[in-house]
Design brief:
The chain has a domain at about 5-90. It contains two helices and no strands. The protein has helices at about 5-55, 60-90.
Length: about 160
């Protein structure tokens, strides 16, 4: 294989990769526009129904509703084209975002000047199921809780 045909093969491979990327971006933009198109079709159908009802008994409310729906339809069509352009531009420039890791809140220790009382809960000396006395210490939990002692009154 000479250098000319090798360069041509590389260029074809590059063009095929670019085409595949463009097709992926186009399918993503079509998926986003689908919901907007469904709403537009629904509004067009309602406008057609109201136009048919318009030539029946005159109703001011239906005319106002029809005008309002037509304005909403125009806005949706304009925003749909803007969304398509923005989706294509966003697909062209892809960025990676670092993940968020939630930090556990840390509680500050109680002040040292507060009086402390130590309460030790005795462990069982035998197994409650089988009654065996061969128990071993697995661990120890230390907790601090804050307790409020109300004022005390004394008559002397």
């Amino acid at each position: 294989m000479d250098s000319g045909s090798q360069a041509l093969a590389e260029r074809v491979a590059t063009l095929e990769a670019a085409l595949a990327g463009a097709e992926a971006r186009a399918s993503a933009a079509e998926a986003r526009a689908t919901s907007g198109e469904a709403l537009i079709a629904h509004l067009k159908l309602e406008i057609q129904k109201l136009n048919r009802d318009r030539f029946g008994p005159p109703s001011e409310r239906s005319r106002r509703l029809l005008d309002q729906l037509e304005l909403q339809l125009e806005e949706l069509e304009a925003s749909a084209t803007e969304d398509e352009l923005m989706a294509e531009a966003a697909a062209a420039r892809t960025t990676t975002v670092a993940g968020f890791t939630r930090q556990r809140p840390s509680r500050k220790p109680f002040p040292e000047h507060l009086p402390r009382e130590r309460v030790v809960i005795a462990a069982p000396t035998s197994c409650p199921c089988c009654g065996g006395r061969r128990l071993s210490k697995l661990g120890e939990d230390v907790t601090e809780t804050l307790e409020v002692v109300p004022r005390s009154w004394k008559v002397i």
